[in-house]
Design goal:
The chain has 142 residues and is α+β, with helices and mostly antiparallel strands. It has a single domain (14-136), classed as Alpha-Beta Plaits (2-Layer Sandwich), CATH 3.30.70.1290. 37% of the residues lie in helices and 21% in strands. The strands form two sheets. It has a four-stranded antiparallel sheet with strand order 4-5-3-6, covered by helices on one side. The chain has a two-stranded antiparallel ribbon with strand order 1-2. The protein starts with 11 loop residues before the first strand and ends in a 6-residue tail after the last helix. This is IS200/IS605 family transposase. GO terms for molecular function: DNA binding; transposase activity. Pfam families: Y1_Tnp.
Length: 142
């Protein structure tokens, strides 16, 4: 008896594409200041979930420490990752400064909340060595 095929919930379909794209993102506040409390991290996650939902992106995981946050996002190919990052950082900075002005002013000054840089890594799926081997072993047409 053959095993029953289970559909992969990570694979999504569009009009002309089948995809599963995940990225691990890390953002740090300007000067890597220790601005985040548990309450501010919780609010930051809420804001970022809303931004993702509006962009048709799923925020799979969110966590952080006093000086940085981690996100795992599942996004469609039409979403430009750098534009998503800009929206996540811009909208969260706006609301966090507005909702926690006294706390944030103790750690950050000027206009910037986030450092202009960020970390992004593609993730999920098979390891690169497995994909490389799969491609190498594809039969060439005669």
């Amino acid at each position: 008896m053959s095993p029953r095929w289970e559909p992969n919930p990570d694979i999504r379909r569009g009009r002309s594409v089948v995809y599963t794209l995940h990225a691990h993102l890390v953002f740090t506040p300007k000067y890597r200041r220790k601005v985040f409390t548990d309450e501010i991290l919780t609010r930051c996650e809420e804001i970022m979930r809303e931004v993702c939902a509006k962009a048709n992106v799923e925020l799979r995981e969110f966590n952080g420490e006093t000086d940085h946050v981690h996100l795992l996002v599942h996004y469609p190919p039409q979403v430009k990752l750098s534009a998503l990052v800009g929206s996540l950082k811009g909208v969260s900075a706006h609301y966090l400064r507005k909702e926690y002005p006294d706390h944030i002013k103790r750690y950050l000054w000027g206009e910037r909340f986030w450092s202009p840089s960020y970390f992004a890594a593609s993730c999920g799926g098979a390891p690169l060595t497995v994909i490389k081997e799969y491609i190498e072993n594809q039969k060439r047409p005669d």
